[in-house]
Write a structure and sequence with these properties.
Helix content of chain B: 25-40%
Distance between the termini of chain A: 60 Å
Structural class of chain B: alpha/beta
Number of helices of chain A: 11
Helix content of chain A: 25-40%
CATH architecture of the largest domain in chain B: 3-Layer(aba) Sandwich
Number of domains of chain A: 1
CATH superfamily of the largest domain in chain B: Thiamin diphosphate (ThDP)-binding fold, Pyr/PP domains
Strand content of chain A: 5-15%
Radius of gyration of chain A: 20 Å
Number of strands of chain B: 14
Order of helices and strands of chain A: HHEHHHEHEEEHEHEHHH
Oligomer: heterodimer
Number of domains of chain B: 2
Shape of chain A: globular
Strand content of chain B: 15-25%
Strand order of the largest sheet of chain A: 1-2-3-7-6
CATH topology of the largest domain in chain B: Rossmann fold
Strand order of the largest sheet of chain B: 3-2-4-5-7-6-12
Radius of gyration of chain B: 19 Å
Number of helices of chain B: 11
Chain lengths: 349, 320
């Protein structure tokens, strides 16, 4: 499953051996991807009911990879998720409540209606709020790690996620290269989901495998089966360990298929049916559920009960958020600068 | 004597010495000391805090943003203002939006060696203050004196918001001062660089000195021209501009930028909308020509406003 782990830098030989992923780790991760799946189904329903303004972008099919990033970061680490990282966000400490608040524009959400949907975060907690311009978060996480180093802090890592399309941006190249030059403990996780909006990989890149890029940048390389939760958990554990132990930046590439359109407005008519039937087309949540049952860890009834419990929580939270106040234009201070004396009052506005 | 360039170097030295959060990041700024030597000897004096960056303007600004979120106070050097367009996305979409979106400020300083010098040509001469001023969330300053180069850079480091520091290359070597001040006008306040009563010239950057020379020229004709040095173009000190126009009744706005939608357009728009009754004549403006900045010294000298073209425009304004 795992291959091509050629670290360009030596991992500290004194460091502890990388622990294998346990049953308990797997169950914990499964509960999170189940929550992510149920929450996103709710978001899609709210969108279809006309209750969400703007886009809804789901991570269906990418949950196993995403959760594996968020769940294995520690307090004090930095995480800059991308659009299909609901599972990783929940694993890193984001909540169903704040997700719904941001999508529904609640004044009480972390973005206060000033930004929406997946553009949310709490930078002071190391949970960065992505901008839409792909690749931009890579150098930003690298810079955060550089600042930690300058402060003399050790042991923290930063992870950020990107897709196959995002690997074509200048920011991806510049950010990963700059991080490699300074050997920063950065993990860049590529969800190779076969499409950038509608653009297939054949029009996105010409290398045999996106993992080939790692050698060019002189960074560690890790490949995961994005449909397989166990493999994703172990691969991300390895990559994060390598970065934490001084191995410099690590590139993780996981092959998988986005199981929905780019957003809920997109009917995904361009999906090649052959991909759906191929190995990458499997649903990671269903495979993980099957694994739990096949291993005899829990029964199908127990897993079904988890889903009902999660649905109940998500529905109750959505009902609560829909009663919350919306942002009031007359109360917004309309201030883009933190220092009040720099805010200009225009006669015309 | 301290040059404008040395003032910038000394301000960075002072910031590094007094604030452990400060570090410098940019191309060739380490042991080489920078393309213009604005960081000369600083990497030796402050080991590990003056860092050479790859040729990656997007990553340079992006890294500064992440470092700022973590509590650092990065000063980044763009080798030339012209190359900052390669980092534009991070400046205007990330740094400038961060506070409004997340309530977390982004205290970065982006130094832009700006403006034309003889032989600079199309890609080493640009004045980009207006495009940065267009985006909400940025402070844009244009120091025109040695004193301001020093004090405004030190002040910029202490501002919690992103500051675009447009330092003018034409002033680097020939502008000199005996000493550096301890106190200064705060960023956001314009300065009356020369008092007068017959007309107001509003300007910034290297054009301050061309405008002062024009004002001196006009004095021989008996005209007393007031010259306002904006110091910062965002925020723009509309009060000082309007107060000056109230005294003189006539306004000429001068900038080395291209004419379309720049600082002169903004100043004229504000005076026309907020101080129309103060004007005795239609306001005027003079900018660089609307072409790329030419290489040849003769073409370049005719491309940008100079003391003689400013004086000629002022005479037309005075005779209306």
């Amino acid at each position: 499953m795992q291959r091509a782990v050629d670290y360009p830098y030596k991992i500290n030989p004194m460091s502890k051996k990388i622990a294998p992923v346990t049953q308990s780790d797997f169950i914990k991760a499964y509960r999170l991807i189940l929550t992510s799946r149920v929450l996103e189904e709710k978001l899609a329903g709210l969108y279809r009911a006309g209750m969400i303004t703007g886009g809804v972008f789901l991570g269906r099919g990418q949950e196993a990879l995403s959760v594996s990033v968020g769940i294995q970061l520690r307090r004090g680490d930095i995480f800059a998720p991308l659009i299909r990282d609901q599972a990783g966000r929940l694993a890193f400490g984001d909540t169903v409540l704040d997700t719904l608040r941001t999508y529904l524009g609640s004044q009480l959400g972390s973005m206060r209606g000033r930004d929406g949907n997946i553009h949310r975060g709490r930078p002071r907690d190391g949970y960065y709020a992505m901008i839409s311009h792909l690749g931009a978060m890579i150098p930003s996480v690298a810079g955060a790690l550089l600042a930690r180093r300058l402060k003399g802090e050790q042991g923290a890592v930063g992870a950020t996620c990107i897709g196959d399309g995002g690997t074509s941006t200048g920011a991806f190249h510049e950010g990963l290269n700059a991080a490699a030059v300074d050997k920063l403990p950065l993990i860049v996780v590529v969800a190779n989901n076969q499409y950038a909006y509608s653009t297939p990989n054949s029009r996105q890149y010409a290398c045999a495998d996106l993992l080939d890029k790692a050698a060019g940048y002189g960074v560690g390389a890790h490949k995961a089966d994005g449909t397989n939760l166990m493999d994703c958990l172990q691969t991300l554990r390895n990559a994060i360990h390598a970065a934490r132990e001084g191995g410099g930046p690590q590139l993780v590439v996981a092959d998988l298929l986005r199981l929905v359109g780019h957003g809920e407005h997109d009917d995904f008519a361009y999906l090649d049916p052959k991909l759906k039937k191929s190995a990458v087309g499997s649903d990671c949540v269903l495979l993980a559920e099957k694994h739990i049952i096949d291993q005899g860890w829990h029964t199908a009834d127990e897993v079904a009960a988890w889903r009902r419990e999660t649905e109940s929580e998500v529905n109750a939270t959505a009902d609560r958020v829909r009663r919350e106040p919306l942002p009031d234009p007359s109360e917004d201070d309309w201030a883009a600068l933190s220092r009040p004396e720099y805010r200009e009052q225009y006669a015309a506005s | 004597m301290i040059t404008y360039l040395e003032a910038i170097r000394l301000a960075q030295q002072q910031a590094l010495a007094t604030d452990p959060r400060v570090f410098l990041y940019g191309q060739d700024i380490g042991s080489f000391g920078g393309a213009f030597k604005a960081t000369k000897n600083l990497s030796a004096e402050f080991p590990g805090r003056v860092l050479d960056a790859p040729l990656s303007e997007d990553a340079i600004v992006g890294m500064a943003i992440g470092a700022a979120i973590e509590g650092a106070r990065p000063i980044v050097e763009m080798q030339f203002a012209d190359f900052s367009t390669c980092g534009l996305n991070q400046i205007v979409n990330h740094a400038a939006t961060l506070f409004y979106r997340t309530s977390v400020p982004c205290p970065i300083v982006v130094r832009l060696p700006s403006g034309g010098t003889s032989g600079g040509g199309p890609f080493h001469s640009q004045s980009l203050e207006a495009i940065y001023a267009h985006w909400p969330g940025l402070v844009v300053v244009t120091p025109a004196t040695v004193e301001d180069a020093y004090t405004m850079l030190l002040e910029a480091v202490n501002i919690d918001d992103p500051v675009i520091f447009c330092e003018h290359k034409f002033l680097y070597y020939h502008l000199k001062a005996d000493s550096l001040p301890e106190t200064a006008l705060p960023i956001g306040k314009a300065r009356i660089a020369r008092a007068g009563r017959d007309a107001t010239i509003v300007t910034h950057g290297a054009m301050l000195h061309e405008s002062l020379a024009a004002a001196q020229d006009l004095l021989e004709d008996g005209y007393e021209i007031e010259v306002v040095d904006l110091r910062s173009v965002k925020p723009l000190d509309t009060d000082t501009i309007l107060a000056s126009v109230a005294r003189t009744g006539r306004l000429l706005c001068v900038s080395e930028e291209w004419p379309w939608g720049g600082v002169t357009a903004e100043v004229l728009a504000r005076v026309a909308t907020e101080g129309f009754g103060l004007l005795d004549a239609a306001p005027m403006r003079i900018n660089a020509k609307d072409t790329p900045v030419p290489y040849h010294p003769d073409l370049w000298a005719a491309h940008r406003p100079t003391a003689s073209t400013i004086a000629a425009a002022a005479r037309r304004l005075l005779h209306i």
